[in-house]
Amino acid sequence: MADNNHNASVPTTDPQLRRVLGLPALVFFGLVYMVPLTVFTTYGIVTEITGGRTAGAYLLTLLAMLFTATSYCFMVKRLPVAGSAYSYSHLAFGPNAGFLVGWSLLLDYLFIPMINYLLIGLFLNIAFPSVSVTSIILVSIALVTVLNVVGIHSVAKASNGIVGAQIVFIGVFIALSCNTLGAGHAVDLLSPLLGDGSNPGFGHLAAGAAVLCLSFLGFDAVSTLAEETRDARRTVPRAILLTTLGSGLLFTLLAYISQLVLPGSHFNNADAAANEVMLQAGGQFLANFFTAAFVAGSLGSALASQAAVSRILFTMGRDRVLPQRVFGTLSPRFGTPVTATLLVSVFSLLALVIDLSTLASLISFGALVAFSAVNLAVVRTHLMGTDGQRSPKAWLLYGVIPLVGLGLTLWLWTSLSALTLATGLGWFGVGLVYLGVLTAGFRRPVKALPHC
């Protein structure tokens, strides 16, 4: 591993991404990646698990995620490059460990665009039965690919528009909900936090929080845009914390209001509980508005997630741990990783043949690998080694905070299904075999990052 005191800048001899993003664009990118309306995707399931305490579960999740988000802030200040957890692990533990973390993270990032394409196809097919799911998915992939090829500036503009549309919906939802609550019977303002008594105790609340944790992947996505951000060391950490805090409070507010509108923890169909909430709050108009806003959010999430994974592939290609001619090049015209973007689009065609439940079960593994690795990387880079800091403040910032984040992340591992663990470990095994080939049987390390 190279000296940590070395200036963590990207070498001028390698392909360079364009620094065009500021703080508002990064925050909107993170919000659209997470989809502001994603709270309604698992609302029914978590409400049943927690006994009507989804808002409380979101607060618990937000507390847990803020520790790991802070670790990302520490690392992006040390290494403001596009590779996220891959680059941070590379710096902290060496190129081989960095590759395995990056490889595991790919499992998460490659499937997130795919699940969004599938959601778009399913929801629009319900609204327009004459248009096939296949056609909708293909058009969505083509649209997202074109916007990502043209450049991150176009992605930021589209993200702003999509978040804006969802904010309009949220405003309408809150207004109609307040009108419904004002015209009805007495409202128990503490019920969304205390629940209905069906599943009491901290254990059920924690189980619900575990389901919600992966709604917060936007802060990792923000870190992948460090090389396209002006004054990245200052701007990206602020965007990470604002994205995490803002989305967490928004999720909590929406869950709180939904529980007031439709008290209790039992639904006709937990997977479609959002529709029951919308019908109760504003009738068929709001239910239709919700469908449109949710599809727009899924399209925005696909846009943001494809941009993020293409930049991770670009970074790994630039570092020659993936074929450089394929992944480590930028378009001379657009300044974007076009080849990586196109390959992600081709991979996303699996949305035509894979089911939603399988996709959902495969997304968790890579994210938890990344969260664990980044928390450990903070301890390694800031406290250990010859240049490690030893003051009480340093131990608090770079020891206690990341270790709490690590402990909370390890707790989340216990919520993973057997299928997720088996698939994730299988993917990790493939990466380990590839690394063995790349390093001639682990006799030499992969190429070290020049900017470390």
Tell me what you see in this structure.
With 452 residues, the protein is an all-alpha fold. 70% of the residues lie in helices and 0% in strands. It contains 18 helices and no strands. It has helices spanning 23-34, 43-50, 54-78, 85-93, 95-127, 133-150, 152-183, 191-194, 202-212, 218-223, 232-261, 273-318, 324-327, 338-348, 356-362, 364-382, 392-413, 418-438. Helix 3 (54-78) crosses helix 16 (364-382), helix 5 (95-127) packs antiparallel against helix 15 and helix 5 (95-127) crosses helix 18. It is globular and about 70 Å long. The model is unreliable at 1-12 (pLDDT under 50).
Question: What's the topology here?
Answer:
Blueprint: H1 23-34, H2 43-50, H3 54-78, H4 85-93, H5 95-127, H6 133-150, H7 152-183, H8 191-194, H9 202-212, H10 218-223, H11 232-261, H12 273-318, H13 324-327, H14 338-348, H15 356-362, H16 364-382, H17 392-413, H18 418-438
Helix pairs in contact: 1-7, 1-11, 1-12, 2-9, 3-9, 3-11, 3-16, 3-17, 4-5, 4-16, 5-6, 5-12, 5-15, 5-16, 5-18, 6-7, 6-12, 6-14, 7-11, 7-12, 12-14, 16-17
Keywords:
single chain; 452 residues; mainly alpha; 18 helices; disordered N terminus
